[in-house]
Amino acid sequence: FEKTQRSSSQTAWFVEGPPPCPLSLLWPPAACPRLRGCLQSGTPHSTMSRWASVGSRHVRSYNHLQGDIRRRKLFSFQKFFLRIDQNGKVNGTKSKDDPLSKYHGNHICGRGVVAIRGLHSNYYLALNRKGNCMEREFNVDCTLKERIEENGYNTYASAEWRNKKRQMFVGLNVHGKPLRGRKSRRKNTATHFLPILV
């Protein structure tokens, strides 16, 4: 019997209030009560902690990324560019010129929580409660916790869902196929990506 739990009591990587958010890339704040408080200026840290609580071991500085919106590609440790296509699929490509590998990345609800939107598909990268990696219209499945690992690569874990108290990560295997989030681990290099500016 497996339990999928919300990650409201787990470690995050931001400690200050939220930056101004580019709402035009998301959806009207009234449509999501969980994020509405985060999208208002002057939100107290107690509201921010609904997403995650601050832990002493893995606190990272994201000052240089606060409010950042840029075009990027995600290059995996397995040497694939993560691709968000127009048919609801996420996979990897070896082609550095594939337009479907380009995305807009923006930070929401404080540093460390991101949304990744395909530049051409206009869909968001998502991990649902079952750990399936997919693309969809923006909702809570599309909120990802970005962390810089010791090897310099980034990992992207669901900000909303956990499996048996374990975080679930975006990942690509050696064939460029998406990993099941329930089987992913932070130390598995299949979940490691380099964001590359384009």
TrEMBL record:
Gene3D superfamilies: 2.80.10.50
InterPro entries: Fibroblast_GF_fam (IPR002209), IL1/FGF (IPR008996)
A Pfam entry, by short name: FGF
Domain of life: Eukaryota
Coiled-coil parts of chain: none
GO terms of molecular function: growth factor activity
SMART domains registered for this protein in UniProt: FGF
SUPFAM superfamilies named among the record's database cross-references: Cytokine
Family affiliation: Belongs to the heparin-binding growth factors family.
Protein name: Fibroblast growth factor
